[in-house]
Amino acid sequence: MKYKYIKINDKKYKFIIGTGEDDKFRISFNSLTKKTFGFNFEQWYQYGYWKNQFLPYSLMDGDVVVSNVSVNIMDFEVFGKSKRYIQLGTVMTDVAYRNKGLSRVIMEKIIEEWKDKCDLLYLFANDSVLNFYPKFGFDILKQYQCTKLISKRGENGLVKKLDMTNECDRALVYDKANTLSSLAKISMCGNAELIMFYCTLDMTDSVYYIQDYDAVIIANFEGDTMEVLNVFCKEDISLDKILDYLVDENIKREKLYFTPKETDSYLIMPIEGEGTLFALGEGTLLLANNQFMFPKLSHT
């Protein structure tokens, strides 16, 4: 990997755009990720999903990653238009290196490199850093979520719960996730690797296959609510018909974590508590003028 040294407050740091193939970098990057967020990317890498859409921009003290902002190159279909977006994620700095301007330096370099190469730079931030991103020109965008009450039981049909430790089941989900969803107003294109990150990490018990429609559904069940994270189907089929397969007499409410193309039957409300969306670039206007939600499984 190529790198250069940057001097910040009289100390030299190695600035590097990391890749999973470099074992020493990956181990250190994973260590800081685990310390900061409680997970790491090792299994994702071992399954072969860490590819060139995911680029950690890191500052290293010697051979140790101490600060990072990851660039995620993402293509979307947004209200019928193809867009190249850059999502920033895994924003983290080791506790011993905070308040030294390291994240600021990385952010400035990313914005300089990518602002003219994409339609939008965006990220999701927690409440502790809401004053940080406006310094770089980011604006807050409001997101909206679709929910509705369910008044009838589902269709009778075969529903298979997929096993994410099984290679064949993972291959099935990966294939379906590479299909542009015709059911959503904003669909991530060609980044099944990110979907697999979720499916093999904390949603291993949430992946279903509907054979009748050759569709994969990722959904959680909380009390009387079905939380639908995404639906992948090659055919333009009614979302209700697909979701009906997962509805039983205990489910009274449906909550979507993406914006369906057909919203007439849904209550649309502003999202609270899901992280603040910040955006920078010409594409901001298109999103600001619509009620939308980035698919939850496209978050990094």
Automatic annotation (TrEMBL):
Pfam families: Acetyltransf_9. GO terms for molecular function: acyltransferase activity. Residues 16-165 form the N-acetyltransferase domain. Its EC number is 2.3.1.-. Keywords: Acyltransferase, Transferase. It is an enzyme of class 2 (transferase). This is GNAT family N-acetyltransferase. It comes from Clostridium frigoriphilum.
